[in-house]
Write a structure and sequence with these properties.
The protein has nine helices and seven strands, in the order ββαβββαααββααααα. The chain is an alpha+beta fold. The chain has two domains: 34-111, no CATH class; 139-279, Orthogonal Bundle (Lysozyme), CATH 1.10.530.10. The strands form three sheets. It has a three-stranded antiparallel sheet with strand order 3-4-5. Helix 7 packs across helix 8.
């Protein structure tokens, strides 16, 4: 909008107001916009340069870390295939298997070599456990992998062949966890009611609580291994035929056979034959 004042004497109209900016205002606005753009570009370029500097610094640090890892690994001959460094820490490839370790866990000073070697040993044990679990699962054990691994670890902890424990689960319950027999045997390994009070005192449960606890195969395997281990300790010269016969018949029933020169039972033969045929147990 434009507002003019007419001079009646001269006939000339004088501009009093206009919505359009004056020329000097336009120049000031353009100058201000230009300065803002320059500052923005300066900030962007500065951030890029700073980021590049940080990346280069960390890259040098990572190279030093990797160099130390590889040098120490070569000295100890740990069979490490290589290292990469990522944002989540150091990933080390131990014997072909990728393991994630934080910077705090992987320290190579003289004082911490034992801890590092223990970590390598743990990794190797886990690798072996996974291979054993693969074997039994592929051999037809119809249990979930975590339980298969638990049975293996528990059996080995008590000095028992895992193949025997899996064959027992087949014989006793067809690998069924929630089962009670007509003769009051409970769980996958069929722990008889007469043993509940004694086992409950050892593991911290009442005899009544044991009825429910033995429905859990993770607990049932521990009780079964405990009982078999005790038989093996009491009769160190006995093989699995004698041990399993005692487990099934009790001492008095088993020794009636032994006194007749019979050192196996239908029960023990079924389990050991199954372990041989299905799990390659050598006997």
């Amino acid at each position: 909008m434009y507002i003019y004042k007419l001079n009646w004497e001269t006939g000339i109209a004088e501009l009093l107001h206009s919505d359009e900016p004056r020329e000097e205002e336009v120049v000031r606005a353009e100058t201000k916009s230009k300065r803002i753009n320059e500052l923005l570009w300066f900030g962007i370029i500065s951030m890029i340069c700073f980021s590049v500097g940080i990346i280069c610094a960390f890259n040098n640090l990572y190279e030093d870390i990797m160099s130390n890892h590889i040098e120490y690994a070569q000295q100890k001959n740990f069979g490490i295939n290589g290292f990469i460094v990522g944002s989540d820490g150091i990933r080390a490839y131990f014997r072909g298997k990728e393991i994630e370790l934080s910077h705090e866990e992987v320290v190579y000073s003289e004082e911490t070599k034992a801890e590092y070697e223990a970590e390598l040993e743990r990794i190797e044990k886990e690798r072996i456990l996974e291979e054993k679990a693969d074997f039994f699962i592929n051999a037809g054990v119809p249990l979930e992998r975590p339980l298969v691994k638990h049975v293996i670890l528990t059996a080995e902890e008590y000095g028992i062949e895992p193949a025997i424990m899996f064959a027992m689960a087949w014989k006793e319950s067809s690998f069924t966890a929630y089962i009670i027999s007509a003769t009051n045997d409970y769980g996958m390994w069929q722990i008889n009611l007469c043993n509940h009070v004694k086992l409950g005192k050892i593991f911290g449960y009442t005899g009544e609580e044991m009825k429910n606890m033995l429905m859990d195969p993770y607990f049932c395997i521990k009780c079964s291994c405990y009982m078999i281990s005790n038989i093996m300790k009491a009769y160190p010269n006995f093989g699995y035929h004698e041990v399993l016969t005692i487990y099934n018949r009790g001492d008095s029933g088993a020794f009636k056979l032994f006194n007749q020169g019979i050192y196996s039972s239908e029960y023990s033969r079924a389990i050991i034959n199954y372990a041989i045929q299905n799990y390659g147990y050598q006997g």
